[in-house]
Amino acid sequence: MAKKMPSLSAPVPGQSLTAEPGSRPWENPPKYARVEDALEFYLDDLSEPEKMAMALEKIEEGVPIGLLVNTLQTLGTSKGLHTLDVGVLISPVLIEFYKAAAEQEEISYTIGDEDEGKKVSRAQANKIVKDMMSSSKPEDETAVVNMEEAEPEEQKKGLMSRRSGEEQTATEEEM
After folding, report:
1. Is the pTM of this model over 0.85?
2. Most buried among 8, 110, 135, 145, using CB within 10 Å?
3. Residue 82, exposed/middle/buried by CB under 10 A (0-12, 13-18, 19+)?
4. Tell me: the pLDDT tens digits for 107-125?
């Protein structure tokens, strides 16, 4: 009996630490730092007829609204649209938004904390949200802030901060 070779398609341990600091969207300042701004973005974006129709179709198929919203806000965090805490704070409002839309269309829904109904995997929810977000406007995808345009960093003056050569020699001469 032949021994099965291990799959080598997984990431190498520590690979996530090899990216340049600040190169990931979530490592930069968010595009929407305030809860109000993030809510305005999501409510405007999700109110588009195509996206609303797709979301209501999935809700009608049995996808819990809570899972849909959690996936949506996690994706927004990973794209650098908002921070994780802003995403958590906007989740209840987005759940109510989808509940109201489903009730208006007379669609039965589940929020996700119920044990009944069919289960939807996290991978299915990710695919649904990515499909919804793929039709976003291009300007909404530019959440990454260019670090070269940021203001220059102030001089560090803490106990463990390293001094420049001129400051160090001037301090040594004073002693």
Report:
1. no
2. 110
3. buried
4. 898 887 655 545 666 676 6
